[in-house]
Structure formats: structure tokens, C-alpha cells
Amino acid sequence: MSNFSxxxxxxxxxxxxxxxxxxxxxxxxxAAVVVSDINKDAADKVVQKIKNSDGxxxxxxxxxxxxxxxxxxxxxACTEFGALDLAFNNAGILGATVPTGELSIEDWQRVINIxxxxxxxxxxxxxxxxxxxxxxxxVNTASILGLVGTPDLAGYVAAKHGVSGLTKTAALExxxxxxxxxxxxxxxxxxxxxxxxxxxxxxxxKALHPIGRLGQAEEVAKxxxxxxxxxxxxVTGSQYTVDxxxxxx
Length: 249
Ligand SMILES: NC(=O)c1ccc[n+]([C@@H]2O[C@H](COP(=O)([O-])OP(=O)(O)OC[C@H]3O[C@@H](n4cnc5c(N)ncnc54)[C@H](O)[C@@H]3O)[C@@H](O)[C@H]2O)c1
Prior knowledge:
The protein is of the alpha/beta class. It has one domain: Rossmann fold (3-Layer(aba) Sandwich), CATH 3.40.50.720. About 45% of the residues lie in helices and about 15% in strands. The protein has helices at about 15-30, 40-50, 65-80, 105-130, 155-175, 200-205, 215-230, and strands at about 10, 30-35, 55-60, 85-90, 135-140, 180-185, 240. The chain has a seven-stranded parallel sheet with strand order 3-2-1-4-5-6-7, with helices on both faces. α1 (about 15-30) runs parallel beside α2 (about 40-50). It is globular. The model has no long low-confidence stretch (mean pLDDT about 95).
């Protein structure tokens, strides 16, 4: 088990699913965690779980698509726990599932604002905070759909491919300055995000994964905490799939 004692982590979209699993695992391994989510009640519940297990955490309500709120989340981590060492830019939504020629402009903009710009706003404020502190590690949540396309999810696929490119660029800029930056690319993971899909689509998803099932949030969290840990000291600018061989075909 890696040890994050003395480190402060900011996790966005930490009120549910993959973000929650990462927040819990980081806290279990000693980090002080800022549990950030647009849904304050959900963030409060995760903080309570961490505190019940004698971990250190604080909730912060922030919409990642608003740069001022992301700046405030980073400031909060630094004032509440002294510095920022680790960040998981993870908040995301699926958006409407319709062909590109029918996708509303509003839905396109909403998905791009949260899933792509939200990750940039995170990096924009986390990087200066980490540089002040001598370095750190960042993981951005992309997706298998940041590596390959799929029908009916144009905004999501474009945003996640954007996250891949943004991650590689930031890694090139900051790897020699003490900040490692990687992206994680989950296959379909059984979280509330998939509630937006109809039952038939949901059931058909298993067949797309050669491993024969969907993933669990904790299986992604194990890879993310590895990437945030010193065990991954030579890993930066990488795209880590956690996808039951979805993209191996
Ligand atoms: N579940 C999957 O199959 C899957 C696969 C690949 C990638 N991902 C990605 O993983 C990330 C987490 O997804 P999940 O499956 O855990 O979903 P989830 O719906 O369980 O959790 C997402 C969390 O993000 C929060 N959130 C939504 N919009 C926000 C915003 N604007 N600002 C701050 N917080 C916001 C929600 O309140 C929620 O708590 C997303 O980026 C998603 O695209 C999920």
C-alpha cells in the first residue's frame, strides 16, 4: 500500500462513483482529502465516511465548469490543509446520446465545459499551487472514449480526446519541474453515470468488454492512487486504460 501521509489531495466529482472511490482510498492511505463536488450533500456524505474511519477530509462545493470555483477549490485545499500535493480532475457527465447531426448546441457546450474545460481549469490553478510547494502529481479522468470513438456521444468523445491531449501537453511542460501528469481511461464502470443510459444499452455494454463484465469504481481507484503515488515516479504523460480489454481489439 502506498502511503500518502502528510499529503493533501483535491478530488473533483468526489461525491459519487470513481471520484468517491479515489477519495476514500487516498484518505485510507493517509492523505488529507478535499472532497469537491457540485453536489455538496454528496460531498458531505463522503467526508463523513472518511471521518468515521478516522481519516482527514473536508468538503468543498465547486462546479468544475466555472474557473472561479476551481480557483477557490485549490485555494481552499491550500488554506485548509497547508499545501496541495495531489489532484484528481475527475468530474464529468455523459450528456445526451444522439447522433452528431441532432445534438443540441446547449448539450455540446455543457459537456465540453464540464468534461474538458473543467479539467483545464483544474490544471490551471493546481499547477501553480504545486510548483510553490516543490511539485506534485495529477491524474485526469479521460475514458476509453478519449482513445476511440463511439456513435451518439460526440460531445463526450471530443471532450475526452481533449483531456488526453491536454494531459500530454501539461506533462511535457511540467515533468522536469516536479509535477507528473497522467490520464486514466476507464472502460464502462458500474456507477450512477450510467443511469443516463436506457436498460437495453446498459445491458449491451458488457459484451463490449472482452473480460465479460463492467468495471467497478474501486478497480479504477487502485490505478489512480498508484499513478498519484511515488511508486509511479517515472510515469508521466501516460494514458492508462482500465478497460477489461475494450480498446485491445
Ligand atoms: N462510469 C463510467 O462508465 C465511466 C467510464 C469512463 C470514464 N468515466 C468518467 O469518470 C468520471 C467520473 O464518473 P463516474 O462514473 O464516477 O460518475 P458519477 O455520476 O458516479 O460521479 C460523477 C460526480 O461528478 C459530479 N459532477 C457532475 N458535474 C459536475 C460539475 N460540473 N462540477 C463538479 N462536479 C460535478 C456529480 O455530482 C457526481 O458526484 C467522469 O469524468 C466520467 O466521464 C466514467
